[in-house]
Amino acid sequence: MSRSTLPEFLAQHHVTADLQTVILGLAEVSVTISQALAKGALAGILGAAGAENVQGEDQKKLDVIANDLIKDALAKLPAVRGVASEEETDVLPCHTDGRYLVTFDPLDGSSNIDINSMVGTIFSVLPHTGSAPVCEQDFLQPGRNQAAAGYVLYGPSVMLVLSTGNGVTMFTLDQDSNTYLLTDAEVSIPADAKEFSINMSNQRHWTAGMQSYISDLIAGKDGPRSKDFNMRWVAAMVADVHRILCRGGLFTYPWDSRKPEQAGKLRLMYEANPMGFLVEQAGGEVWTPEGKILDIQPEHIHQRVPVILGAANEVKTCVDYHK
Ligand SMILES: O=P(O)(O)OC[C@H]1O[C@](O)(COP(=O)(O)O)[C@@H](O)[C@@H]1O
Ligand SMILES: [Mg+2]
Ligand SMILES: [Mg+2]
């Protein structure tokens, strides 16, 4: 059976030439990152980098390597006006005529690196509407403005999952030819969920609404929901959301009282918006307890947000517990 390659798919779906170069640039650099990850300890690239990022988190060597690779690859593309990364303090200007801004989480799920478990690269492409030179303000657009969003999951196989606003498509890396081939063109999240995903160890720190929602899920058939739910937690949003795109369910990373001043753990512009775009494009819902994430007007590039996403009916139920 002959499968479309990523460039063929983009051309067939009338993606603008400029946007194609951005997506193909990200795809190409992801192959290099996947090769570095595959070498692991043999290349001496596991472990801590010995520095903190702007978020106050310890950087892994591979966070820094992936960040530099993506930054350098995007800076070469004339279509890219500027980039913003979870690992960079400020936005970085690129080409003065570029039509697109790219935000990215170079390696999501970094705590999985040292245990040879799943990690990924998450990206979001926004139109550039400001004036030169590029500044942080240009990036502060609601997620609904995204021209494209996606991720690369470095798992047993390497997968690129993409939306340009017309559904969600999955590609798998053919390791012989180093090309991404289309493997699922009809990604869709069932409206009802049988699985939920949350870091249960934080239970005592959640709001009363989240406490009672999760305890009703755990009560299963014997509780008010009259239904058993399974639970999964990969500790990499990219892998947890991938499971939801493949077989449904609900994922949440709520606000918690350990850092009350922080809205949530996940980053709006590098994690919640791009993943949210994919989930909505697959028929799911993406909310905070207050409203839809893709409608949030960002105030700064490193903003954090509580996230409830996945199966449409289940997300609404979870939000209702917060009222
Ligand atoms: O430590 P926890 O609570 O399991 O957090 C896991 C969450 O943190 C993250 O790893 C944050 O991403 P980074 O690895 O890019 O910092 C999410 O992917 C994941 O959902
Ligand atoms: Mg992340
Ligand atoms: Mg990261």
UniProtKB/TrEMBL annotation:
Keyword Hydrolase: yes
SUPFAM superfamilies per record: Carbohydrate phosphatase
Cofactor note: Binds 2 magnesium ions per subunit.
Binding site for Mg(2+) 1: 86, 105, 107
EC number of the protein: 3.1.3.11
Keywords recorded for this protein, A-Z: Carbohydrate metabolism, Cytoplasm, Hydrolase, Magnesium, Metal-binding
Pathway connected to this protein: Carbohydrate biosynthesis
Recorded superkingdom: Bacteria
Major subcellular location class: cytoplasm
Reaction equations catalysed: beta-D-fructose 1,6-bisphosphate + H2O = beta-D-fructose 6-phosphate + phosphate
Binding site for substrate: 108-111, 199, 265
Binding partners and assembly: Homotetramer.
Name listed for the protein in its UniProt record: Fructose-1,6-bisphosphatase class 1
Source organism per UniProt: Zhongshania guokunii
Gene behind the chain: fbp
